[in-house]
Amino acid sequence: MKLLNEEYIKQAIPVREKNSYKGNYGKLLFVGGNEQMGGAIIMSASAAVYSGAGLVTVASAPVNVHALHTRIPEAMFIDMYDLDTLASMIKKMDGVVIGPGLGRDDRAIDVMNTVLKALTEDQFIIIDGDAISIYVNELLDHPDAQLIFTPHLGEWKTLSNMGPDKENLQDNIQKQKELNAIVILKKGQSEIYFEDEVWQNIPGNPSMATGGMGDTLAGMISGFIGQFETYKKGILSAVFLHSKIANTLAETYYVTLPTAIIDHIPKTMKGYTNPN
Length: 276
Ligand SMILES: NC(=O)C1=CN([C@@H]2O[C@H](COP(=O)(O)OP(=O)(O)OC[C@H]3O[C@@H](n4cnc5c(N)ncnc54)[C@H](O)[C@@H]3O)[C@@H](O)[C@H]2O)[C@@H](O)CC1
Ligand SMILES: Nc1ncnc2c1ncn2[C@@H]1O[C@H](COP(=O)(O)OP(=O)(O)O)[C@@H](O)[C@H]1O
Ligand SMILES: [Mg+2]
Hints:
By secondary structure, the protein is α/β, with parallel strands linked by helices. The protein has a single domain (2-271), classed as Ribokinase (UDP-N-acetylmuramoyl-L-alanine:D-glutamate ligase), CATH 3.40.1190. Helices cover 43% and strands 15% of the residues. The chain is built from eleven helices and ten strands. It has a ten-stranded mixed β-sheet, sandwiched between helices. Helix 4 packs parallel to helix 5. It binds ligand NAX, adenosine-5'-diphosphate (ADP) and magnesium ion (MG). Adenosine-5'-diphosphate (ADP) is lined by residues 129, 152, 186-188, 190, 204-206, 208-209, 211-215, 217. Residues 37, 39-40, 99-102, 129-130, 152-155, 164, 187, 211-212, 214-215 line the site of ligand NAX. Its cofactor is Mg(2+). Belongs to the NnrD/CARKD family.
């Protein structure tokens, strides 16, 4: 297992080309946030905006539109239960994050089916939170896109049948291959399973054990993938910086709020920008 530490991330973040524009930095769709959990998809989309994503659209329950626009006016909005609009929106995207606050009811299942069917092979999809349960319980087919799962240990049990006391490196590698996906297994020191190698994150601390922390990570990962040259670089940099920011904040704060992490992303990225 390779260790994900300061050395990897040093100068990993690309400098922006002088004449680049928003279209160069990722068009992302966030799908989730039912009537009870709008905050989850707002945090996720906010993390992507603050990570530098070029264009962010949120598909959510209509009741969430004003909260979203108050928090991040940079994001666009569609009703996620309008399945025709949802399907046509997917076609314009580089990547999709689905799951934060999605719920698991019949409407959520329809949303999930619509999204997975509309994807094409040049896109990526991050399946997080409730969307992990739906993917497993509804026996959904692997989409025609790069698939990325971001389970915590409870969600990994749903995906792999291995509980927190049973999961281990060899069986996790085997399961990741069966899933034909990149797996970011979230825990105290999260593990990242790629097709050819496994990484373990080093920073992180228990001040991060707060609702919304994983929603925020999913948004960061998507935002980074939209700008970095490879999936690997984007994912590893996002996982590292998410917990690195939390470590810095935990020097002075008892608990690290996901929204505080989000606020610190742009300045922290600047500090790691490659000057060449
Ligand atoms: N403000 C919001 O709207 C929030 C919405 N959230 C959403 O709530 C939905 C359900 O997610 P949850 O993760 O709460 O619930 P789940 O019920 O899916 O997962 C929690 C279960 O996993 C078990 N578990 C085992 N190891 C665990 C570990 N290391 N970390 C976490 N759980 C572990 C727990 O005991 C529990 O049974 C998701 O869609 C999520 O995005 C949460 O992110 C919290 C904040
Ligand atoms: N004790 C801890 N040490 C390090 N990281 C933690 C700790 N507790 C939680 N985290 C991190 O916080 C995030 C929690 O994700 P998740 O449970 O999906 O949150 P949510 O669904 O509430 O947004 C993960 O990135 C996990 O690694
Ligand atoms: Mg989660």
